[in-house]
Amino acid sequence: DQIEEVIEFINSRPRPLAMYYFDYDQARADYISQHTHSGHFGINMVITHVAQDDLPFGGIGASGMGKYHGPEGFFGLSHERSVMSNPKLYSLKYILPPFNKPIHRFISKTLLR
Question: Aldehyde dehydrogenase domain: from which residue to which, for each copy (predicted)?
């Protein structure tokens, strides 16, 4: 099965800070999310997790390491993986270049705060 080959390919390499997957099939996206490792898993969206101040986000393995003493160590080494999903692929026009001026201003304000 090609999906299993893809999962094996991903898992045989260093764990990425973020992984983005695009598909109309939510069950397949969920399956890949559950069978791969990454700091963040985005479904039909990219980089928007950076703008979420309260989202638990960080690397795993080669892409990051948490704290390791006391209760902070437990939480630092316990990985809460963020997963976001956008069911409509057509909405990518709002987050992919070229950006119109209002979108460009919003992205600049969000990323440069």
Answer: 2-75
